[in-house]
Write a structure and sequence with these properties.
alpha/beta, Transcription Regulator spoIIAA, 19 strands, binds iron/sulfur cluster, five-stranded mixed beta barrel, Rossmann fold, 437 residues, OB fold (Dihydrolipoamide Acetyltransferase, E2P), single chain, globular
Length: 437
């Protein structure tokens, strides 16, 4: 049986696309392999959200391409870099056989077949009417307690720092029936926690009059028997309305954790980022969500050193960390991306060392805030879904709470898949330690 090796860089959308490719090639007789030297086809699912992931592709191809010597091996580059660079990748890597963007994932079996005899290039964005969401379930999700379900592709926002609209195209919302079908199929395979996935899930269905909204989708998926935890990512603060807030009041299996990217705490910077909300509006949304779900835990994304960011602007970001009490965050120093509108703002570029120093200051305080919040949980009893043995400690198992806390406690792997009560004995910056009650 032909074997496929898929290397995935970047976000959960890429992980999900790689899973779809594994499932679709599986239907064509392929088996997935983790051994590069055993593969007949190697697919590299790339990310271009920052420079570093691009460098990773270059070094990984350095390992793969020599493997073509003396044997037939098809090598393909997928994902956001393939979408942005397309044909140019063939000039850089003449030995590559296949270059395709995210909109072509559903055609993977045909493209791999065609690449045996000629180079394949497919970076066309499909019209919404022609776009196909694959409902095939990743064979590697078998036995997993948690799974992602794509509800949307692309993004219609134009945040000036972001390359996603150029790499993933316009927003298309997946028909609700298809989403439900995949959720039911996953539950039938033992999945108990479902995360709805999209670049900006809150705008689900907004483009098509009469289409179910995101709040409608949450309410319907929440009722699927077997879904014990319902999560979603990624949100845009501007699109969180009262209907979504009400879901936190009404839907007990909707997780008490929300990843709500803010990017900056300064209104001036948010304007230049074209985020279309103010820090005041962001905090209003947070207050409404917390009124509906008092134990709601927030995490976020932050960029430091965006062009024109002053010390005073950055102080606003540090202040927002205190006001919103984020318990974790993905934070980066601004990184100019090709083709993004923010490139026109580089006359006001912030020196790299200043952006880096601000990043380190933000991350240091973020760790302190997380530790303070986790220490406040000492003595409380948390409901934990046990996911597996600890990666580090013998005789210790690990699980997660609805608030997205990782909890380690002494226990036997036989309790994997169970909900257990754990009394917290110690808080760390990223995890909790406890004992089973
Ligand atoms: S909402 Fe903004 S940051 Fe998020 S994917 Fe869309 S353009 Fe990028």
């Amino acid at each position: 049986m032909p074997r496929v090796y898929i290397k995935t860089f970047g976000c959960q959308m890429n992980e999900d696309d790689s899973g779809k490719m594994r499932a679709l090639l599986g239907k064509d007789g392929f088996v997935a392999t983790e051994e590069l030297q055993d593969a007949d086809v190697v697919l590299i699912n790339t990310c271009s959200v920052r420079e570093k992931p691009e460098q990773k592709l270059h070094s990984f191809l350095g390992r793969v391409l020599p493997q073509k010597r003396g044997r037939s091996l098809t090598v393909g580059i997928a994902g956001c870099m393939a979408q942005v660079e397309g044909e140019a990748l063939y000039k850089k890597y003449p030995k590559v056989d296949l270059v395709f963007g995210p909109d072509a994932v559903h055609r993977i079996a045909d493209m791999v077949e065609a690449a045996k005899t000629r180079r394949v290039l497919d970076t066309e964005f499909l019209d919404a009417a022609d776009y196909t969401f694959s409902s095939d379930v990743d064979p590697e999700s078998a036995g997993q307690l948690a799974a992602f379900v794509t509800i949307q592709k692309g993004c219609d926002n134009k945040c000036t720092f972001c390359i996603v609209p150029a790499t993933r195209g316009d927003e298309v919302s997946r028909p609700l029936g298809e989403v439900l079908g995949e959720v039911r199929a996953l539950v039938a395979r033992g999945v108990r926690e479902v995360t709805l996935l999209g670049q900006n899930v809150n705008s689900y269905g907004l483009k098509s009059p009469g289409h179910p909204t995101f709040a409608d989708l949450l309410r319907v998926v929440h009722e699927v028997p077997g879904v014990e935890v319902l999560r979603y990512t990624t949100s845009h603060p501007r699109d969180i309305g009262d209907d979504v807030v009400a879901c936190y009041r009404d839907l007990p299996r909707l997780a008490s954790h929300l990843h709500l990217p803010v990017q900056s705490g300064s209104n001036a910077v948010l304007r230049r980022m074209k985020r279309f909300y103010t820090r005041e509006r962001y905090l209003e949304v947070v207050a409404a969500l917390r009124a509906a779900r008092p134990d709601l835990v927030l995490t976020t994304d932050v960029i430091t050193g965006f062009p024109g960011e002053t010390d005073a602007d950055f102080d606003q970001t540090m202040l927002l960390l205190e006001e919103a009490r984020f318990q974790a965050s993905f934070s980066f120093a601004y990184n100019p991306r090709p083709g993004t509108p923010a490139l026109r703002l580089l006359d006001d570029a912030v020196p790299a060392e200043v952006a880096q120093a601000r990043l380190e200051r933000f991350q240091a305080r973020q760790r302190e805030v997380a530790l303070e919040e986790h220490t406040r949980l000492v003595g409380t009893v948390q409901r934990v879904l046990v996911e597996g043995p600890s990666a580090h400690d013998e005789g210790v198992v690990c699980g997660r709470t609805s608030t997205f806390k990782t909890v380690n406690f002494p226990g036997d792997p036989s309790c994997v898949g169970e909900w257990v009560q754990v009394r917290v004995t110690r808080g760390f910056a990223n995890t909790l330690r406890g004992e089973r009650v």
